[in-house]
Structure to design on (160 residues):
């Protein structure tokens, strides 16, 4: 175990919410208009209520669920993997092999915290980490060492 921690800052909104939250508001407003002005009946009402629920989740629910789940999140870095355990109701574990990751990217946050990501789809992201520069530097060294361990050994014989 090289490092273990948890989010010390839990952001309510992240960059992805910049698109999803406004879209959720538009969907919510359209559903409410349809329900209140058009006054549908039967199956159309059920469909409009489902769309309303999806709009509310996109506008607010997603952020609230993430915020609450980050309260139960832990991170760990070993000499070969980075691991995140998170979940609101049921803990899920996600892991990324260090040797397969590019250099970590630090996005500074408020109160000397930050988010560390890797620019690789599906890779673990460390959100709201305290002392983010130290953690990024530790990850950089761990990634370099993991890649060095996987590199093929140098041949002692020069090519003829």
């Amino acid at each position: 175990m090289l490092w273990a921690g948890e989010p010390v800052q839990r952001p309510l909104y992240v960059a992805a919410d910049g698109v999803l939250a406004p879209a959720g508001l538009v969907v919510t407003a359209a559903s409410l208009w349809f329900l209140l002005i058009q006054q549908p009946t039967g199956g159309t009402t059920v469909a409009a209520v489902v769309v309303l629920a999806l709009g509310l989740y996109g506008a607010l629910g997603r952020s609230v669920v993430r915020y609450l789940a980050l309260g139960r999140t832990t991170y760990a870095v070993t000499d070969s993997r980075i691991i995140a355990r998170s979940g609101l109701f049921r803990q899920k574990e996600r892991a990324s092999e260090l040797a397969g990751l590019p250099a970590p990217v630090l996005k500074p946050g408020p109160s000397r915290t930050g988010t560390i990501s890797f620019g690789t789809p599906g890779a673990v992201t460390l959100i709201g980490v305290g002392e983010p520069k130290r953690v990024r530097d530790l990850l950089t060294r761990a990634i370099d060492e993991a890649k060095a361990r996987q590199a093929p050994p140098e041949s002692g014989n020069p090519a003829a």
